[in-house]
């Protein structure tokens, strides 16, 4: 592994952890809760498998996804920024300008990463509003498990190649994936952490533990690059969620929720 790859991977891992720690942006209407249904938990998994099968069958259609991302990612990032405040809005506008003007530079790539991350927070908040929490947790775990199988089997590679090489024009950025120097990450690699952050938005302590474990697991997973050139970057956050939620489920019965001791 080169030093450049190590730095880029560390930056991607920190971004994933930050998306978890940041929680959700309050940017979706509450009336969407009327649509809440367990089936929405399958959306991340169906999106992952659907895109892979689609691009394996028709790799040229990756251009369609590139077009959609070029328009949708900045728009969603602006929605998130408007809900946060003027400083966030100014930052997002600056990132859009940097990404469009010089998307091949380090600054442009970091700006694009910021836009993609911000767009993921909006989609994550939307999915949390329409999905029961327990079911969504199962959907996150299932998505990461399938991602692991797809990467390990090599089935994901053709779709990834098609998506990474798709672009609108040479002069415009590709926002359907993250590029940091020699490192490329899929949109799902940021969406799943943002989804976990939105899921745990009201549980600050749990969210911060999951974020810390996500960073630790992601950095440890980077050792895979010593023997392979691909790894499933959705697995660390799903594993962190399972560990923290599992630990919470086996809290000793003599300890009250606020941490004070009780007797029976």
Could you walk me through the main structural features you see in this protein, from its secondary elements to its overall organization?
It contains ten helices and two strands, in the order αααααααββααα. The longest helix has 24 residues, at 106-129. By secondary structure, it is mostly helical. Strands 1-2 form a two-stranded antiparallel ribbon. The chain has one domain (3-24, 40-245). The radius of gyration is 19 Å and the shape is globular.
State the order of secondary-structure elements, H for helix, E for strand.
HHHHHHHEEHHH
As a whole number of angstroms, the C-alpha radius of gyration is 19 Å
- SSE-based structural type: mainly alpha
Q: How many DSSP H or I helices? A: 10
How much helix, percentage-wise, in residues?
Answer: 55-70%
**Order of the strands making up the biggest sheet:** 1-2
Low-pLDDT runs of 5+ residues are: 252-264
The main β sheet shows up as: 2 strands, antiparallel
What is the residue-mean pLDDT, rounded to a whole number? Answer: 89
As a percent range, the share of strand residues is under 5%
Main attributes?
disordered C terminus, mainly alpha, 264 residues, 10 helices, single chain, two-stranded antiparallel sheet
Write the layout of secondary structure elements.
Elements: H1 3-22, H2 43-57, H3 62-84, H4 86-101, H5 106-129, H6 133-153, H7 157-165, E1 177-180, E2 183-186, H8 187-199, H9 204-221, H10 235-249
Antiparallel strand pairs: 1-2
Helix pairs in contact: 1-8, 1-9, 2-6, 2-7, 3-4, 3-5, 3-7, 4-5, 5-8, 6-8, 6-10, 9-10
């Amino acid at each position: 592994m080169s030093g450049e790859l190590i730095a880029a991977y560390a930056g991607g891992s920190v971004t994933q952890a930050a998306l978890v720690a940041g929680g959700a942006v309050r940017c979706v209407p509450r009336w969407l809760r009327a649509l809440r249904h367990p089936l929405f938990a399958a959306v991340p998994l169906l999106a992952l498998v659907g895109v892979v099968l689609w691009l394996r069958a028709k790799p040229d259609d990756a251009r369609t996804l590139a077009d959609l991302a070029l328009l949708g990612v900045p728009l969603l990032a602006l929605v998130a920024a408007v809900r946060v405040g003027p400083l966030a809005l100014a930052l997002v506008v600056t990132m859009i300008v940097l990404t469009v003007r010089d998307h091949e530079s380090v600054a442009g790539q970091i700006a694009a990463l910021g836009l993609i991350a911000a767009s993921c927070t909006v989609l994550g908040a939307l999915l949390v509003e329409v999905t029961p929490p327990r079911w969504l947790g199962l959907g996150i775990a299932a998505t990461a498990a399938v991602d692991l199988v797809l990467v390990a089997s090599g089935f994901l590679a053709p779709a990834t190649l098609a998506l990474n090489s798709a672009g609108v024009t040479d002069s415009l950025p590709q926002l359907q994936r993250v590029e940091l120097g020699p490192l490329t990450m899929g949109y799902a690699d940021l969406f799943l952490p943002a989804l976990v952050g939105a899921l745990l938005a009201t549980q600050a302590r749990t969210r911060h533990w999951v974020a810390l474990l996500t960073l630790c697991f992601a950095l440890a997973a980077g050792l895979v690059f010593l023997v392979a050139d691909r790894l499933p970057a959705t697995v660390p956050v799903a594993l962190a969620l399972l560990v923290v939620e599992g630990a919470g489920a086996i809290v000793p019965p003599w300890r009250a929720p606020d941490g004070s001791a009780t007797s029976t």
